[in-house]
Specification:
Strand content: over 45%
Shape: globular
Order of helices and strands: EEEEEEEEEEEEE
Distance between the termini: 21 Å
Largest sheet: 7 strands, mixed
Helix content: under 10%
Structural class: mainly beta
Number of domains: 1
Mean pLDDT: 92
């Protein structure tokens, strides 16, 4: 949490099999709307691209520099609820900030997806999409880092064909505890955590 009530998370994701390195810094304002996002994507020794995204009122400004498309600049008008999908695993619970908790249930959430592929292996020049988000009952989840009281969301894309994914997260900062993409045999779990309240 920052002094002005905003929240910033930095995620560095690396994979051995695909040799991807994704470095993301994401800030949401005190009203839980995105403020700015920086994405840097590399595979092996080659830079795939970088992107900077900033939300000013209802305008999303996007500047990217990628191997495929060169330098681009966009300004998009977006609705009052918007989320920027970065494909950094620890940020996969952050659509929570755009989810209307007063309504609950399943909601169609406007997102800017920084990759056109389900696994985030291109970009960060992306596109506007719709993500269907459903809130489920809270659960106690046990992972190597401990047992946590978690909120539970599931996601379905209306653009990219992929199985339903589920996330469990905890605390005021929406720390990801477990990510389950059963249809693709993928699971991420929190193995270590400091300053995160256990159940």
């Amino acid at each position: 949490m920052n002094r002005d009530g905003s929240r910033t998370m930095r995620c560095l994701s690396m994979t051995d099999d695909s040799r991807f390195v994704r470095d993301v810094t994401y800030t949401v304002r005190s009203d839980e709307r995105p403020h700015d996002v920086f994405v840097r994507l590399q595979v092996g020794e080659a830079l795939v691209g970088t992107g900077y995204f900033v939300l000013r009122g209802r305008e999303l400004e996007i500047v990217t520099d990628t191997h495929e498309s060169g330098r681009t600049s966009q300004r998009l008008t977006v609705g009052p609820r918007i989320h920027i999908v970065t494909h950094a695993v620890m940020l996969d619970a952050w659509p929570w900030w755009s989810y209307d908790r007063d309504i609950g249930g399943e909601q169609a959430l406007a997102i800017y997806n920084t990759s056109t592929r389900w696994n985030g292996t291109d970009g960060p020049l992306g596109r506007l999409e719709t993500l269907r988000v459903r809130r489920h009952d809270d659960e106690r989840i046990t992972v190597p880092a401990g047992t946590f009281h978690c909120r539970h969301l599931s996601f379905d894309s209306d653009v990219i064909r992929s199985p339903t994914s589920h996330v469990w997260f905890t605390g005021a900062d929406a720390i990801l505890v477990r990510y389950d993409w059963e249809g693709l045999d993928l699971e991420y779990v929190l193995t270590e955590a400091d300053n995160v309240e256990r159940a």
